[in-house]
Amino acid sequence: MIKYLVNRYRGWGIAKKTLIILLFVSIVPVMVIEIITCIIAANTIKKQMDILVESNMKLSQKGLEDFFSEYDSIIMSIYTENEYALKLEKLNVWDSRNYYLLKKQLEEDLENISYLHPEILGIAVVTQKKECILYDSITNSTMDSYCFPEKDKSWLAVTDETFHNTQTVYSNVINREEANGTKRNIIYLGHRIADINNYRQGTVGSILICLDETNIRETYSQENESEFNVSFLCDANGSILSSTRADLIGTGIFEEWEDCKEELFSQPELKIRQAVEAHQIMNNGFYSIYTKPVLKNQFVLVSLRDYREPLKDFKYIFEVIILLTILIIITSILIMIQFAGSLQVCVEKITSAMDRAYKGDYTVQIEHTWRDEFGKIARHFNHMVQKIDQSGKMEKEALLREKNAELKALEAQINPHFLYNTLDAINWMAIENEQFLISKMLKNLGSILRYSVHKSNGVVSVRSELDYLKQYIFLQQQRFSFSFHCIMDVDEEVLDLKMHKLLFQPLIENAIIHGFPGDNGQDMLTVSIRKMGDKHLVVQVEDNGKGMEGELVRELNHYDYSSGTIEGSIGVRNVIMRIKYYYGEEGHFFIESNDRGTKITAEILFEE
């Protein structure tokens, strides 16, 4: 019975098969669909949340990297500006003559930096004697400082650390109150200052920058931060420098691992989860932890995401899915019946046209207005049968042209043989009359004629092509009474390489006929051939003649050899077309010309 049904199914058309399959799929039990959908939906929500959070974490990571890099750039500009080091050297030895002047200059420099970076709360330069030269943006003063107060010199700890560290030093968070009662969480960035021209002298001072913690928080905090989501930035000592929850700022959550700080970032999720649970940062265990290292593990960005919020409406989604599934099944049955009917019409049109083409009717075309895959099949079928029809006609024409060409070739074989014999007879007459120059010219002309006629599209050695060009140039020099000189500059290593014959003679002829006489003194023609890379020859034909018109140069450099739209410069056009036919995209041709001459460069493939 099953075998019978399978055979019946195989014998049906594609439209009927599609209808049966779609109907079968649509009546799958609602509960199965519901369970699968719920599982997929839950996993999808989690996956999408993971993707979104991961994407936001990458952006936050980059934002923090850029944030710290900006201040590193400010510090480096001061560190590499040797003027700061020189001033500090003098201040360290208490040069009384220039002390107040140097101090004033440094204060003005620091004020300018604060003006350019208004987010900086304060900036200071500290000497070896712990004397602080500063500018405070909170108080707008170089004396009274919120960032570097005299009564609380905890910031000097950062200075001490910079004197023994070549990298930028970051302090813990310090909570400080302004005169108006406003409290801020601030962080210090410090770096040593040394004379870059005299490293042996060591550190001459340090630079300190005071920042508001909110500036750091703005680079990674997200719009959806709430009681269910917490983000914070901690350092390698486990101290939280910045957080979206104010109560976490400045706390240390990794005291339990004080003896193994080096391993802190080797398994960040595990360590942080244990710390979060120990400090009860999240009120439940249904959350995920995401981490990103910052500044090569100097800091780690942590994001805790609770799944309760995005999944609380999932119950309503579950109920809606049941109702939608029932509605979709009923609607699908009606749509599938209509779809199967239209599908059958499309298939019958295509198969009918294919049957006609199979019988040899290549004029058949499928008339349609479809824009789907069936339309694409119909368009390709119409194009294919047109191509087949055109190919058949072109094949017949090609056979006819081939027969005509064979007849013309047989006729043409008579003429060169006659010319060779005639030139040979004239040559002997010239010798008998002691006209040896004429004899040499006739001999060269005969060689050129044989070379040109015999396998004109063949491949010869560079040496053979040069011999031919020398004979041709000799005849042209005789013709024009040696009004021009020619230089052949050819590398020895290319002489035995192979190339297509008669390729560059039109360029030489074009230079002699159209380029000379020039207005630059003695007319000179230079032909050079070089090997480039493992498979290319570069051939250059250069003259100092009158040059070519700029419009013609542009047209030839962008010549469409397949259309052949340029009427003039037949010889140059012939060379371009042959290069493209022989070498395709591996062949290149370029002209440079002005009133001092023309240089034509061609790049072709060679054969060993």
UniProtKB/TrEMBL annotation:
Task: Pull one GO CC term from this UniProt entry.
Answer: membrane
By its UniProt entry, which Pfam families does this protein fall under? HAMP, HATPase_c, His_kinase
What GO terms are given for molecular function?
phosphorelay sensor kinase activity
List localization entries: Membrane
Q: Where are the transmembrane segments?
A: 20-42, 316-340
- Record's superkingdom? Bacteria
Q: What is this protein called?
A: Two-component system sensor histidine kinase YesM
Q: Do the record's keywords include Secreted?
A: no
Give the record's keywords alphabetically: Kinase, Membrane, Phosphoprotein, Transferase, Transmembrane, Transmembrane helix
In this chain the HAMP domain maps to 341-393
Q: Does the keyword Kinase apply?
A: yes
| PANTHER family in alphabetical order | SENSOR HISTIDINE KINASE YPDA
